[in-house]
Design brief:
Three copies of one chain form a homotrimer.
Chain A: E1 2-9, H1 10-22, E2 27-30, E3 41-48, H2 53-64, E4 67-76, E5 82-91, E6 94-100, E7 103-106
Antiparallel strand pairs in A: 1-3, 1-6, 2-3, 4-5
Helix pairs in contact in A: 1-2
Bound molecules: nickel (II) ion (NI) (3 copies).
InterPro entries (chains A, B, C): CdAMP_rec, N-reg_PII-like_a/b, N-reg_PII/ATP_PRibTrfase_C
Protein name (chains A, B, C): Transcriptional regulator
Organism (chains A, B, C): Caproiciproducens galactitolivorans
Chain lengths: 107, 107, 107
């Protein structure tokens, strides 16, 4: 038995949750505090058999990999006009820890 | 040293917390997010000596085992009357993970 | 790879968070529920290489050790006068669990 603890960007948290549940994994989500440094993350706990760890990581990875997006950005120019051009920002991404479970009980 | 991570139904969370505290265990409760899939759970963290893990699991189990309850249920019948009969629902229950602690410090 | 799970007094939570971040550690904070028994704590998750665990514990310890403070205390006396004298209270403190990480992925 393993415990997968995944810190998932809020951008992807809903998709990760839905995909894991659809595949039959029991998911618990922990609320993160509002501090500016860690805003925007959800921490997932998933207990799973050893031989399904790869599947859990694959699901999380598929739904939440760090990626770049083009977003509009505006610059004001000298004479009061402005130019809008796309800039690349990084969104999404997860940090995943797999822990060994010494003992597991469902009561 | 072991770390017990228990996901406890909110039905039983108060009783589990009180019983663990009464027996001298230091309990930390983590807030779960409001998502519909995991509503109704509280996650407990309890650090304990190896030889007290059985006691922790026994306390949690005693206070929160999955069980059925009879609750009233009403059915509307043809002529405007209704019949109230009991149905069995499952309440409570916990999922418990015991993790090995590599190092423990109280500062 | 190790996962450091630290339960830190709210008195010290901001300082611990700032000090860990300044030293380059990625910090996730979990919200604790408002129950009276565990009010006043924040739970930190920090993933780190094995050889930096001492540094993480040292930072947390430095910013949050349990200590006594003198605070004013007032006693009402017989004739309507009162005497204010200092009493010693304990503030701060952390409980730190280090867990072995079976597998680590950043996606
Ligand atoms: Ni196993
Ligand atoms: Ni031990
Ligand atoms: Ni390692």
């Amino acid at each position: 038995m393993k415990l997968v603890l995944a810190i998932v960007s809020n951008d992807d948290s809903g998709m990760v949750s839905a995909a894991l549940t659809k595949e039959g994994f029991a998911v618990t989500k922990l609320a993160t505090t509002g501090g500016f440094l860690m805003a925007g993350n959800t921490t997932f706990i998933v207990g799973t058999e050893d031989d399904k760890v790869d599947q859990v990581i694959s699901i999380i990875s598929k739904q939440s990999s760090r990626r770049t997006q083009l977003v509009p950005s505006a610059t004001t120019m000298d004479v009061g006009m402005y130019s809008s051009f796309p800039v690349e920002v990084t969104v999404g991404g997860s940090t995943i820890f797999v822990l060994n479970v010494d003992r597991f009980e469902k009561v």
